[in-house]
Structures are given as C-alpha cells and as structure tokens.
Amino acid sequence: MQHVRVVVIGGGATGTGILRDLSMRGIPALLVEKADLASGTSSRFHGLLHSGARYAVNDPEAAKECIRENTILRRIGKSCVEETEGYFVRTPGDDPAFEPRWIAACRACGIEVEEVPLAEALRREPNLSPDAEAVYRVPDSAVDGFRLVWHNVMSARRYGGAIRTYCQVVAINSVNGAVTGVTLQNGKTGEKETVPCEMVINATGSWAGEVASLAGIAVSVSPDRGTLLAFNHRFTNRVVNRLRKSSDGDIFVPHGSIVIFGTTSIPTDRPDDTRPRSEDVLYLLKEGEPLFPKIRDYRMLRAFAGTRPLYSPSAATGRAATRNFVIIDHEEEGLSGLLTVTGGKFTSFRLMAEKTVDKAAAKLGVTAPCRTAEESIVPAPDEHLMKRATKLFPSEGTRLAVSRLGDDLELAVRASEENPWKKLLLCECEMVTLAEFETVASEPTSHSLGDIRRRTRLGMGTCQGSFCALRATGALVENALIPDASPRALFRQFLQERWGGIRPLLWGTQLKEIELERGIYDATLNIDGHSEGTFPPCEEPQPFHPVKARTPAPAAPNTGDGYDAVVVGAGFSGLIAAATAAGRGKRVLVINRGGGALTIGGGTVDILGFAGQEVVTGNPFAAMERLAPGHPYRIVGPEAVRDALDFLADVMERQGGAMLRAGSETTGNAWLPTAAGTMKPTWITGQSMNPATVREAESFVVVGITGMKDFSPQLAASGLQLWPQFAGKRLEHKHIPSPFGEKGVTVRDTTALDLASFLDSPEGFDWLERSLAGIRSDAACILLPTILGTKPGSAVHARLEQATKRKIVELFCPPPSVTGLRMHRALMQELRLRGVHFVENATVTKAVIENGRCRALVTAMPDKEREYRADSFIIATGGLFSEGVKTRPGEATEAIFKLPIPVPPVQDDWSSPEFFGHGNHPFAVLGVAVNGRLNPLGPGAAGLWDNVHFVGRSLGGYDFASEKSGSGVALATGHFAGTLV
User: Fold this and answer.
1) Is 344 domain-assigned?
2) Which of 67, 759, 858, 884 could cysteine-pair with 877, CB 3.0–4.6 Å?
C-alpha cells in the first residue's frame, strides 16, 4: 500500500472534497468509507445548490458563503450542475412584511434578486399556484450529489488520491497524545489491518460523534432527519422556494425528468434514522399545495430521508440549530493529528474542504495553496471522444453518459465500438446503456446493484427498477461481474432497497406499480421461492381432456341491448366468465378498458403453490382447507375449481391449444423452470412446458438470443443448478445470433413477442432451426425463452423437436407473456364463436341500482355516457393493478359501486418492511368481500345485489402473488360466476 500521510473518514461531499484538495496539494491521502460513496447525507437531500437567498435574513454569513460557492461550483462542476435558476414565491398566508426584509438582506449579501411579473412567472411555470402573490428570481441551481461525490474522487485520483469503500475505521490509534494511524475492518471479509498515518480527518457528518468516540473524544452532533419526495413528473423547470421564514415543505428542485420536494426537520438520536414515514409524506403534500395546488395529482416515485449533521454544543435542535460548519482541532483535548469537520451545507462542501485542508496542511508543514476553485472537477471530454460517443449513444444518452462517467467515458465508448450490442439500453427510464453499466460494475468499488445505481441512476426512473433490475442481474452474470455475490441475492437486495422508498407512499399509482412488480417477480418467476428442501416428482403429465363431456351451446341471438349478462373486464376471469355464460346459451356483452393481465402472467394455471408461509407439497385441493374462510377457494369450493379446469381444457382443446395436466392430486404441483433461474409450482401448462421433460433429461442447454432483453441464459442456468430438480444434471448456456437487423445488430432491444411473432412465419422457423443446429452442445434438452409462436397450440414446438431431434422446453419469462397471449387468443376465438359482443376501450364509472338490484352499468365515452342494461353483471375489473380497487391514503374503494374496503388504519401498516415474504403484505389481500354466490357483502355480511358477481383479482381474501394462485382463482371464480347468470 502506498505511503499515506492523511486518512480521511467519510465518503460524502465533504470527505471527497477534502481528498481532492489534499491530493491537489500533493499530500498523500486515503479516504475510507464504511459503505459506498454518497450513501449518506450527500445523496439524501433535495439537490439544491443554494444561492444563499434562503439564509439571507437569519444567517447572512452563511448566505454569503452560499452565493460564493454557488458561483464557483457552477463553473468547476458543470457536469454535476443544472443551472435552473430559482423562484421565491409568496403565497396567500405568507407574511408580506417578510418580503422587503428578505430582498434587502439578499442584496446586502450580494445575491441577485429580480422580481418577475406574476403573469410572466405563470407563463414560464404554468403549474405554479395562480394565487401566488409575488415571485422573485434568484441564481439557485440543481446539483447531483451522487455525481459530484464520484467526480471529486476522479479528480483526486488524477493527483494520486485513493479510496477504500466498505471499509470501516474501528480504531484511531495514537501514541503519547499523537495520532499514529487507524485500524480498518473490511466490511466484506471482516479482515482487519492497520494503516499508519500522521493525521486523521473525521468528515463523517452525522456520524462525527461516533467516529470521534473511537479516540475517546466527544463531539456534539445532533442528527436532524429530513424527508423528501421524488416525483415522476418535472412539473417545474426552476427551483421553487416559498418566500417565508425557512420551514418544512417549501423547496422544489427539478432534476432531469423528475422533481425533488422537501423537506422536514425532525431531531433524532440516530444518524442512520433514514426511514421515511407515511405521515411525513402526507404532511409534505399538504405543505406543498400552496405552491403547486395539483401536487397530489403528480405521481410520486419514492420518499427518502437523510440526517443533517447539526453541530450543537448548546443543545439546540431542529431548525433552531445552526447550519454553519465547524472545524475542531482535537489537539486542544489532548490528541494531536485529529480534525473533525461537521455541520454546514452541501453547497459549501468545497469551502469546508478548503478550510479543513488549510489547517491540516499547516500542521503537516505543507505550504501549497488550495486550487480546487480554479480547476474543473472533471474536464470536458475532447472533441474526438465526443464524436465517437455521439455515434454510439442516443443524443440525450450521450449527454447523460458524459456527465455520469466523467473520466471513464472512454472505457464505455471503446466497449460499444468493439461490441455494438453494448450500446443497447439496460435501463430505459434513465437511458443507461449496457456499456455504461459494465464500465461501472467493473470498478472494484462496485459490490452491489445499489453501488452501480448510485453512479449510473440505474433503477431510479419511472419503474424504480421493476424492469431493469433483472436485466442488470443477468448482465452481471454474463460478464462475471461481482462474482463473489449470489445473483439472486443481489437482485433481491436491490429491490429491497428500492422498496424502502416506495413503501411510505403505497397508494394509487405507486401501489399499482408494486402489484405489477409482484405479479412478475413473485407470481410468474417465483423470486420469493426457495431452492431448499425436496419436492416429490409429479406423475407423468397427461393431455388435459375434460373429465365431463361437454356439448357447446349454440351462439345466442342478440337483440339490441338486451343482454343476459354484462361482463366488465377482459382479463382471464372476465373471459372465462363470458365463455362460460355464452356456452350456456346466454347473450353476453364484455366491456373492457384494456387487455387485462393475462398477457403479463405466465399463461399457465397455478392452483395453489403456497399456503401461508408453507410450500404446498401435496394435493393443492386438500391444502385449500388450510386457507382462511374468506379465501375465494373456500367460497366456491374445490369442486368448482375442478369444474373450471375441465371447462378450460375443453375450450383450449377446441381452439387448438390443448394443455397438459402437469400436476397431480396424488403427488402435487409440477415445478417448472423460469428465466430467473428459479422453479415455480403450477398445475396445467401448454405442451411446450412439459415437466416430464425437465424430470427425465440429464443434460440441458439454456439458449438465449443476442439482443433479447429480459432473458439471460447464464442467469437461468446458474440459478437452476441450485434447485434439487437439477441436482446431478449438466447445465450449459449458449447464445444464438439475433435474426433482426443489419449484421445481427438491432436498432432496439428484441422482446420475446418480437421473436415469437417471427416464429409464426416460415422464415422464423427456419432461422431458429438453423441456429439451434449450429450450437455446440450435445445436451438432451434445450431450454428456450417463450418464443415458439404466438398462436394457440404446439405446432411450432412439435416441429422444432422433430427437426432438432431434441426435447425443448420453454421457460417462464417476464412480460410480454407469449404463453399468456396464446391463451388469450384461444379464449377470444371461443368468444367470437359463441357470439359474445365487446365494447372496447370503455370505462364503467357507475351502476344504476333500482329496487335492490343492479339494472345497468354506465360507461364514460369520449363523447357521452352510455348505459348498458342486463339481467346479471359479472365484475372482473381486477384489483390494484387494473384499478378495480382504487386506493388513497387511508382508504380503498371498489371502482364501480364505490364499495368501501376495510384497510389498516395506519398507512405504514398496509405493508411489511420486507418486500419479499409469503403473505406478509396486508395490501395484497385487499378486495371485495362476497358471499357464496360471489355477491358483494354489505353491512352485517348481507349480500347487496343478487345479480352482481365479483370474480378474479377484484375479490379480497387472497394474495395471488405469494400463493401462486392468481390464475387458479381467476379461472374458478370466473367459471363459477358464469354458471350463475
């Protein structure tokens, strides 16, 4: 290890700023951080580069510091700063007497203030409150804390500075009252080592007191928790402050495509008390309404919190404590060589570093002056490199890559030039390319997807990692990055980290997003499953012919609006209900707003994989007795489930999509492989997912298609080999070239649906046959993504097995679900055959109730409302994802009849702190309570309307994702309701 004179503790803006300053003065220095860089307060604030206007009245010295540092950082840190300018806005209720005092104070501090006419301000920022009474412009800006911290490190490295992350100082060593070094403990291995040095600088912010105590010294730091909200929509292009004395919820800062809003000020005893609470979120929304009246209409992405390090020897807390910084030389307390810097603001980090290093340099006998205000933190790329980058990245992507990667841009550009596939987007929300991801992931400081996120913004956009997390995990496996960690553990850790910020605002659109995420990762891919234990082999799968012979009824004649049944919703339960009723000769109308969730799920029928916390290893029909009385299976009964399975088998066989009964009431569910490298329990499948093939084959090759997103053969193979079903079996992985694009490189990612549609054509089949013949593997079974055509049936699968002379199994994949599409097409063919009518893209808004019965449903059309009358109504509007159940803070309501649904009284109790876990989220069972005829229950558990039947995910009492029961409940209740009309 190189000689070190100074050890800097703390990897935030101040610590990395100190490292940069030390290195530029030629002082050998090492920075150590117990976690990742920018994992503390420097990434947990609103990202405001203060002009000082906020402090001008009460703290003019701090204001003067801010405007000086603001000016400097806008010059030296262009890649980290967005020069948005700022507005200070007085709203009704704000003290007008404060305004002239504030203007005078700003000008006295050298802060430029310009009044903006109200009409002009509203033209520039139309979302501002029209009730605003005064608007002033100041030179506020937005700054990216993550980026600036890393750019400080890049600058320091150019001058010899070094960093160690996930490395904690556990002792500050001294002899005769002088620092001699530190003892470090590796956070990954637990190993300890001693690093000799002449000086230690404690720049740990809210943790300064804890670190100082390692040397037996007390530092009075009062952590102050501030909660902030990130919105999906950039509803302001300028920083907006409320023109009043500093308070809560009065700063809005635009960053890229989002806005960050905050903050609160709550004293806390712990520097790591960074969990945001729902009560904080609701309080902030209320405080923000005077500036932006429609704030509740904007989608929130997440909440987060950080702790301000307030130096408070006088025991002042909260907003009463000073925001100024302090540098403490502990020589006065008997220990030479230890400095602590704490307090202050992000905006003044460079000044804090300068003053600290001035003191350190004097003690070390170094006379070199500070130059950090003169030199750009990261120089702009040269013209040649920019031209190369522009050819590879999308226009906006180029700018983002340049600003995020800094000195490492050359590495990503070269990787994309050598392999054009590297330029494809891994994270579409934040435009992170595979090359950029791999460049950062290759750094020795990257130990998790969270570390990569902090440098690239992976998973910080609209979907909050819902889609890119699995792709990123696959990229790690394919490139042998972070090899010491389990891919599945990295994936789960990443989603758990994102969950911490989503949980406090779990209602409305955000809850809808989480329901989708659980549907993908829990219900379809069984990420929450486990590979421990043993699973009994299932019996030989059989073609799933119906047990009871059925003679389809002829299509019913339709006469105008006179329907026997109106079905609302065209998901699995709605289509089954319509098919059942129409098959009985009923006149049926389906009203749908969209295609339902069938093309998101797996296209198989899962009956019951988990009951509570336990795996269902035996007969799932017998396990239904263990379910709560309000569970849909307990309401309709096992026989109704069996009847529904027979009905589906009949329909699918008639429409050319005959299925296999994969499970057995003797041995239980079948377990089938997924693209995530897991196994999931299911009951009936298509022919291309035969569990017998998986059981009998001794060798497998997982085949991926270059450029296909959401499918990594390496990830699938590495995960499957951990499951007992693959014990002692050989698993390989291969790629075949994409059939699309010049020289095999597409202009966009290829989805499973793209390939499946291509496989419907003779050219597509020929391509796949040739490609599979060319792979170097003698494996008996080929595992493929779900790409074997979009049509019901197994023609492509059977032909391909015959052509390749190998067994072929499709793996469950993330959406778009091709297997779900096949089932959807078969059901639609059945409904057309039965004469079912459809009203597309219509939203049912209310019901007409007369004499205790529902007489009609009303839809909202673009031009008018329309009423649909029928004898019976089947409500298959879905749950949280499809908005059949609508949620707001503290309440849940059924969408059409406005039925109240009981919820936990405390918002934070709607969910569990742990994202993964069977049956641990109360929101997962929200839905309508029904009686034995699926009629909704009113007060006293009485049925409200005997001609209204709720089915599928609109029902309460079950967790479709963790139970692996979603398609089974949809099928059983949809069919049962169809027999009642």
Assistant:
1) yes
2) 884
Same domain? 125 vs 259: yes
> For the chain, what is the total number of helices (H) and then of strands (E)?
28, 44
Please say if the pLDDT value at position 178 is more than 50.
yes
Does residue 392 share a domain with residue 292?
A: no
Q: Cα–Cα distance between 457 and 460 in angstroms, integer?
A: 5
* Residue ranges with strand state E in 695-765: 699-705, 730-736
What's the total number of domains in the chain? 5
435: left (phi over 0), alpha (psi -120 to 50) or beta: alpha
In this model, does residue 558 exceed pLDDT 70?
no
Domain check: are 190 and 119 in the same one? no
Using CA atoms, how far apart are residues 540 and 691, in angstroms rounded to an integer? 8
Judging by beta carbons within 10 Å of its beta carbon (0-12, 13-18, 19+), is residue 369 exposed, middle or buried?
exposed
pLDDT score, position 543: 64
Domain shared by 873 and 960, yes or no: yes
Confidence tier at 465 by pLDDT (50, 70, 90): confident
d(CA 693, CA 538): 12
pLDDT, residue 545, reads 56
Q: What's the domain range around 191? A: 1-47+144-220+312-379
Summarised one tens digit per residue, pLDDT across range 841-873 is: 999 999 999 999 999 999 987 678 999 999 999
Task: Find the range with the poorest average confidence among 56-60, 69-73, 542-546.
Answer: 542-546
Q: Do 363 and 466 fall within a single domain?
A: no
Q: Is residue 176 part of a domain?
A: yes
47: left (phi over 0), alpha (psi -120 to 50) or beta: left
Tokens standing for residue 620: 């799932």
Q: What percent of the chain clears pLDDT 90, i.e. is strictly above it?
A: 83
The CATH number of the domain holding residue 86 is: 3.30.9.10
How does strand 670-673 pair with strand 679-682?
Answer: antiparallel
| Sign of the alpha-carbon dihedral angle for 789, 791, 797, 799 | negative
The pLDDT tens digits for 92-114 are 999 999 999 999 999 999 999 99
Pairing of strands 134-138, 192-196: unpaired
What b/e sequence results for 607-626 when a residue is b if at least 16 CB atoms lie within 10 Å of its CB, and e otherwise? bbbbbeeebbbebbbebbee
Specify whether 443 is located in the same domain as 572: no
Q: Check whether 462 has a pLDDT greater than 80.
A: yes
- Predicted local distance difference test score (pLDDT) of residue 535: 46
pLDDT of residue 747: 46
d(CA 634, CA 640): 10
Give the phi and the psi of residue 29 in degrees, each rounded to 5.
-140, 150
Mean pLDDT, the chain, whole residue set: 92
Tokens encoding 70: 């603001």
Question: What does the H/E/C string look like for 400-455?
Answer: HHHHHHHHHHHHHHHHHHHCHHHHCEEECCCCEEHHHHHHHHCCCCCCCHHHHHHH
Q: Which of 808, 817, 819 is nearest to 703 (CA)?
A: 808
**What is the predicted pLDDT for the residue at 942?**
81
Decide if pLDDT at 533 tops 50: no
| Alpha carbon distance 344, 330 (integer Å) | 19
Query: Do 265 and 224 contact (CB within 8 A), yes or no?
Result: yes
CA quadruple 875, 878, 882, 888: dihedral, nearest 10 = 90
Burial code (b: 16+ CB inside 10 Å, e: under 16) for 337-365 equals bbbbbbbbbbbbbbbbbbbbbebbbeebe
pTM: 0.91
For 560-575, write each residue's pLDDT tens digit: 458 999 999 999 999 9
Tokens of 268: 């806390």
Q: Is 457 among the domain residues?
A: yes
**What separation in angstroms does the CA of 315 have from each of 166, 174, 341, 342, 681?**
32, 30, 18, 15, 58
Which among 265, 283, 307 is the end of a domain?
307
Residue 197, domain CATH: 3.50.50.60
* Residue 520 covered by a domain: no
Residues 663, 764 within the same domain: yes
Say whether both 123 and 239 belong to one domain.
Answer: yes
